[in-house]
User: Fold this.
Amino acid sequence: DGTIITGFLSQSTVNNTEFTQLITGYGWLVRNGQSYVKSSQDLSGFDDPNGFVNEKAPRTAVGVFQNGTIVLLEVDGEEDINAGPDLWEMAELFVSLGVQSAVNIDGGGSSVSVYKGEIIDVPTCNDTPEVCERAVANIACVKSI
Assistant:
């Protein structure tokens, strides 16, 4: 029916919902159009400058606009030189775009974007300047029909 559910799901919701697509992530970035990083129940270490939340790194996230349009966003970076956004900056970017809800889905060397079979970013799978693609178990794919 086109319903989009974002956030943390109860076991009851999981058991009683027939999903056609499902993307999981780590870190709820935006809720109701506002940054939600500090309130995301799966994140901690907000004061740790080297922790996951504050680490400058490549990031991949998915967001939903008020009208139900989905945005898949990948931002390049390189962890060994502290390049790329932290989760606060990813949330700010989504808020500036007008996204109502967004979730961090991946990052680091797993972040790579491909368009029409061609890599369109600079993936650094070993957290060094070496450009390479890391083998991953899951992908988020958008296909026009």
The helical segments are 11-16, 87-97.
